[in-house]
Design brief:
- The protein is built from twelve helices and eleven strands.
- With 324 residues, it is an alpha/beta fold.
- The protein folds into two domains: 167 residues, D-Maltodextrin-Binding Protein, domain 2; 100 residues, Periplasmic binding protein-like II (D-Maltodextrin-Binding Protein, domain 2), CATH 3.40.190.10.
- Strand 1, helix 2 and strand 2 form a beta-alpha-beta unit.
- The longest helix is centred in the N-terminal third of the chain and has 27 residues.
- The N terminus is likely disordered.
Length: 324
C-alpha cells in the first residue's frame, strides 16, 4: 500500500510539474511580429496577412503586436532590446529605418548598428493624385501649370514633414525644377480628405491607401513614382515616361530583428518569410491591395537600406527639412 501511494504521489508531482511548465515552453515558441502603427493601418494589414502562413512555415505561433508612437522609435527599441534569436521581428516601412536617421538629430536607435536585416516584404510605390475636378490629366500637365509665368504654387498635402509623401513631392520639385507648396498633415487620412474636398491640389501616397478612391472616381491618378507602371493602374504613366526622370519613391516594408541574431536564425526566418510571400493566397491578397510582394535575401535588403538612406538623406539635407 505504501509503495502504491509513493508511486501515485510521484506521478502526481510529475504531472503537476509538466502542467506548470507547458506555458513556459509554449511562450518560447512564439514569434512576435511588431508593428509601429495602430491596428487597421496598411502596415498592420500586411503583418496580419503574413502571420497565419508564417506561423505554419516557422512551426509555431506568430502574434502581431502593435507598438505605435515615436515615429517608430518605440517599436524599434523594443526589437533592439529583445533576445537576438529571430523570434522578435519588426515589420517597418521605409521611413523609420531610412529617413529618420537623417531627419532627427537624436535617434534612440541606429538601424545599421542595432538591427539585422531579414527580408524585404512588399514594395509600395507612390502615385500622385489630385481631386476629381482638378483639370490636369497627367503629371506633365501639372508640371507645365507650375512652370507657367505668374502662376501661384500648387499645394501638395503630405502625411507629415519628412514623410514619404513629402519627400516624393520634393523629388518632383527637384526633377521638374518647380515649386510645389508643401502642406503637412498629421497622417494620410486628413491629407486625403482635404484633397477630396478640394482644399489642396494633390497628394503623393501609397497605392494601397489610394486605389479605392481612384477606382471610385473620387481621385485622379496623374503619375507613378516608380521605374514601371503599376498593374492596378496600367494606363497611368510613370514620371519617367512623361519626360521627368528621377521621381522614384517606394515606401517599402521590410522585416528586421535584433543585431547579434545568429546567421542560422536569420536564414531560418528569411526562408520562412520567402515561402510565406510565395504562397498563392498571401500573394493574391497583397496584390489585390496594391502592394507588391517582394521577398529578398538579407544582403539585398541591407543594400536597399543603404541606397535609400543615402537618397533620402540627400533630399532631407538639400531642403533643410526638420521634423514638426
Amino acid at each position: 500500500m505504501f509503495k502504491r501511494r509513493a508511486i501515485c504521489a510521484a506521478l502526481t508531482a510529475l504531472l503537476t510539474a509538466l502542467t506548470f511548465s507547458l506555458p513556459v515552453a509554449a511562450q518560447s515558441n512564439i514569434t512576435r511580429l511588431v508593428v509601429a502603427f495602430p491596428p487597421g493601418g496598411p502596415v498592420d494589414f500586411v503583418a496580419r496577412t503574413l502571420s497565419e502562413t508564417l506561423s505554419k512555415e516557422l512551426g509555431h505561433q506568430v502574434i502581431v503586436e502593435n507598438k505605435a508612437g515615436g515615429n517608430g522609435a518605440i517599436a524599434a527599441e523594443f526589437v533592439t532590446r529583445a533576445t537576438p534569436d529571430g523570434n522578435t521581428l519588426w515589420l517597418t516601412s521605409v521611413g523609420a529605418v531610412a529617413i529618420n536617421p537623417s531627419l532627427y538629430d537624436k535617434l534612440a536607435y541606429n538601424p545599421e548598428r542595432d538591427l539585422a536585416p531579414v527580408s524585404l516584404v512588399v514594395n509600395n510605390v507612390e502615385v500622385l493624385v489630385v481631386g476629381a475636378n482638378v483639370p490636369f490629366a497627367n503629371g506633365a500637365e501639372l508640371v507645365a501649370a507650375s512652370r507657367a509665368p505668374g502662376s501661384k504654387p500648387l499645394t501638395m498635402a503630405s502625411s507629415g514633414t519628412g514623410s514619404v509623401p513629402h519627400l516624393a513631392m520634393e523629388l518632383l520639385n527637384d526633377a521638374a525644377k518647380i515649386n510645389l507648396l508643401h502642406v503637412p498633415y498629421r497622417g494620410a487620412a486628413p491629407a486625403i480628405n482635404d484633397v477630396l474636398a478640394g482644399h489642396v491640389t494633390g497628394f503623393f501616397g501609397d497605392i494601397p491607401g489610394l486605389i479605392s478612391y481612384i477606382n471610385a472616381g473620387k481621385l485622379k491618378a496623374l503619375g507613378i513614382a516608380a521605374p514601371k507602371r503599376h498593374p492596378l493602374l496600367p494606363t497611368v504613366k510613370t514620371f519617367n515616361e512623361m519626360g521627368i526622370p528621377g521621381v522614384d519613391s517606394d515606401n517599402w516594408y521590410a522585416l528586421f530583428t535584433a543585431k547579434g541574431t545568429s546567421a542560422a536564425d536569420l536564414e531560418r526566418v528569411n526562408q520562412a518569410v520567402r515561402r510565406t510571400l510565395n504562397n498563392a493566397q498571401v500573394r493574391a491578397r497583397l496584390q489585390a491591395s496594391g502592394a507588391e510582394p517582394s521577398p529578398s535575401t538579407q544582403a539585398e535588403l541591407a543594400a536597399l537600406l543603404k541606397k535609400d538612406t543615402a537618397k533620402w538623406s540627400r533630399i532631407v539635407k538639400a531642403n533643410n527639412i526638420k521634423p514638426d
